[in-house]
Design brief:
It contains nine helices and nine strands. By secondary structure, it is of the alpha/beta class. It folds into two domains: about 170 residues, 3-Layer(aba) Sandwich (Rossmann fold); about 110 residues, GMP Synthetase, Chain A, domain 3, CATH 3.30.300.20. The longest helix is centred in the C-terminal third of the chain and has 18 residues. The structure holds guanosine-5'-triphosphate (GTP). The site of guanosine-5'-triphosphate has 23 residues, from helix 1. It is found in: Cytoplasm; Cell membrane.
């Protein structure tokens, strides 16, 4: 049995500007695909938790949305969600990508971070596989100076590459070291407490975002309307019917999503179906509808319906 007096447990979250590598790092630490990554910024809308179970600790990772200056109601809600998360966690990991200089976006977030006075903050220089050694060193210095100029200190500064698996274990150890003593908070074997519906919706959204440009990412939302086991299937060959709606803001965007003779939507369906099957461990029939919800980003009623 685990001796709880030598066991730590608590929450950590990664923050950083869009594309800083937060979701990828979460996945690398948890060792499974639970958070959604995408080459498009600002796709992590929901607070998705991955849980690291160890003999000596349980680390619950909360993947916060990309912090950004709010432009719409949705943006404001995202930022409120981030602030709430910071107040609740035991340690915050601030991510800056090694392949880009520390800039105004990072400074803006660090300024917000400075207000979370009681929470230890670890600076993480991500994507170190993309640059030379000296650049990593330069970035580490920039990050240290950033905190100094804002009147606080990092508990640790760590360079990592989630893709190369470099220093990921060390980072996990450092985060664990900053957690309070306590028994496990979740049962063993649980990777995430995110409802399956939301994870399925995120997988569809991720597939829909692949290969679309410019403004579109901000205009897509996915709602899973229904997930029901197909009747009359034998227990050893089940099939899950998933009905989902993909919301866009304008008719023109509907065309982009659907593609020529529906070819794009078919690809989105195929890609996400495979992911959903892997996630849920069962065969899936996916029924995807594209709908227009005009200006949904600014409409509180629509936002509630879409789970914000
Ligand atoms: N080469 C390399 N690429 C990485 C690494 N970590 C993340 N990336 C890439 O950087 C991009 C952004 O990574 P994400 O993990 O989605 O970034 P994020 O900070 O969660 O982004 P938001 O959800 O927009 O806030 C993706 O294309 C990743 O594949 C890394 O260690 N090395």
């Amino acid at each position: 049995m685990t001796d709880t007096s030598e066991h730590r447990s608590g929450f950590a979250c990664f923050v950083g500007r869009p594309n800083a590598g937060k979701s990828t790092l979460t996945n690398a630490i948890v060792g499974d695909k639970v958070a959604i990554t995408s080459s498009k910024p600002q796709t992590t809308r929901h607070t998705i938790r991955g849980i690291v179970h160890r003999d000596d600790a349980q680390l619950v990772l909360v993947d916060t949305p990309g912090v950004h200056k709010p432009r719409t109601l949705l943006g404001e809600r995202l930022n409120a969600l981030v602030q709430e998360t910071w107040a609740e966690v035991d340690v915050i990991g601030f991510c800056v990508p090694a392949d880009e200089p520390v800039g105004p976006g990072d400074r803006w977030i660090a300024t917000q971070l400075a207000t979370a006075k009681r929470t230890p903050k670890v600076a993480i220089v991500t994507k170190t596989d993309l640059v030379e050694h000296e650049t990593v060193g330069k970035r580490l210095l920039e990050v240290a100076k950033l905190a100094e100029s804002l009147g606080f200190e990092w508990a640790e500064i760590v360079p990592v590459s989630a893709v190369a698996g470099d220093q990921v274990q060390l980072l996990a150890d450092l985060l664990v070291g900053l957690l309070p003593d306590g028994p496990p908070l979740y049962p063993e074997g649980e990777l995430t407490d995110e409802p399956e519906l939301i994870m399925v919706a995120e997988l569809i959204r991720e597939a829909a975002l692949e290969g679309v440009h410019d403004e579109l990412p901000h205009s897509i939302a996915v709602v899973v309307d229904e997930m029901v086991p197909r009747e009359g299937r034998s227990a050893d060959n089940p099939l899950l019917d998933v009905h989902a709606s993909l919301y866009v803001e304008r008719d023109s965007q509907k065309g982009i999503i659907i593609g020529h003779k529906g070819s794009r939507l078919r690809d989105v369906g195929m890609t996400s179906r495979k992911q959903i099957e892997a996630l849920l461990g069962t065969k899936v029939h996916l029924d995807l509808r594209v709908k227009v919800a005009a200006d949904w980003q600014r409409d509180p009623k629509q936002l509630r319906k879409l789970g914000f």
